Amino acid sequence: MTDVGQPDEVVVDALGVPVGIPATGDTAARLRRQWSRALTDQPAVTSIEASEIASDDEVAHDYAVTTRVTLAALDATAGRRINLHAGAVADDEGRTLTVIGPSGSGKTTAIRLLAARLGYLSDETTSIDDRLGVHAHPKPLSVITDPLVPLHKESLSPDDLGLVLPPDEAWLHRIVLLHRGTDDDGLVPLDQAHAIAEIVEQTSSLARLDHPILRLADTIDACGGVWGLSYTEFESWIDDLVDLLDLEGQPPPARLHHPSAEVGEPVVGAWTRAAWRDAVEYDDELVLMVDDRVHVLAGLGVVVWLALASPQSVDDLVAEAEALWGAHPEAPALVADALAVMAEAGMVRPPA
């Protein structure tokens, strides 16, 4: 990004961040059309580099602009918000439905269809503050305009596509994970631990937040849980998703927070926890973040990690497992295997 205040810029509001796009003449006019709902008179606080978007191909140029603007806004909000690779729409009250999924999961198509009935906030990035406020990113949508050339996508304004205008303020209300595939199981409530792990894969700079797993868990609880949508054709499920805004949320499950703590040096003769960033424990599962990676532990993995709140020998860990589940002839081998897997993943440390 360049310094702010560059001349000949189109300035757009992306996730609440005024971002400057270097452009003049016909290019500036085209970009203003595409970004019609995001144009702002505010001075840019950051600007993208002209060299990053240089291209004689208008389609490639405009797509690069959108990518760089989004990255600039994500960078400016990192460490303050939960930023999701997700589309979002809101009803007149501001209740926001976000649909999360990786590239190719159908987010843009889903949002185009939903935004014929609910206000368009973004088809790509949902930015959530600590009060559940959703900051709009009404970027152009990449749309196939010629079915005979499916790889050719043009950047079109939400106004050109006739998408519904959103309310001035929006707040996160429901969360859906998109699972496009070969079955039409529809909307199914998901358990918290695995939902968190799946959502983490679709976040940006989550590890820069304080207590990132707790922050996600709190957000999920406030939104009444997470639903998964398994579908083949999204059109079949539009009514269900719109109705989800009025559906009663799931009750929050009991959980415990295990914030990061000083782990000290390895201990002679005893296993210890490795440094971790955050962890949340549910009834029989534990979501553990090490660096920027998330692991969902169950069964023996949970028992071992919790027992290692203080250094433990293998014999101590075997005794802990057998105290819970009874004596087992293979308990030492099972504990050893669990420790090996967890050590390879960076969750625990072997004796010094």
Question: Notable features of this structure?
Answer:
352 residues; alpha+beta; Phosphoenolpyruvate Carboxykinase, domain 3; 3 domains; disordered N terminus; 9 helices; 9-stranded mixed β-sheet; single chain; 4-stranded antiparallel β-sheet; Outer Surface Protein A, domain 3
Shape: elongated
Which regions contain 5 or more consecutive residues with pLDDT less than 50?
Answer: 2-6
Q: Rounded to an integer, what's the Rg over CA atoms?
A: 24 Å
SSE pattern, N- to C-terminal: EEHEHEEHEEEEEEEHEHEHEEEEEHHHE
Describe the protein's architecture and organization.
The chain is an alpha+beta fold and 352 residues long. It is 28% helix and 26% strand. It folds into 3 domains: 9-77, no CATH class; 82-244, Phosphoenolpyruvate Carboxykinase, domain 3 (Alpha-Beta Complex); 256-349, Outer Surface Protein A, domain 3 (Alpha-Beta Complex), CATH 3.90.930. The chain contains 9 helices and 20 strands. A hairpin with an 8-residue loop joins strand 9 and strand 10 (153-156). The chain is elongated and about 75 Å long.
Compile the SSE list and pairings:
Layout lengths: L8 E6 L2 E6 L2 H10 L11 E2 L10 H20 L4 E9 L4 E6 L6 H8 L4 E4 L2 E4 L5 E2 L5 E4 L8 E4 L14 E10 L5 E5 L1 H9 L2 E2 L7 H11 L3 E6 L6 H7 L11 E2 L14 E2 L4 E4 L3 E6 L2 E6 L1 H8 L6 H12 L5 H14 L3 E2 L3
Parallel strand pairs: 2-3, 5-11, 11-14
Antiparallel strand pairs: 1-2, 4-5, 4-6, 4-7, 4-13, 7-8, 9-10, 12-14, 15-17, 16-20, 17-18, 18-19
Helix pairs in contact: 8-9
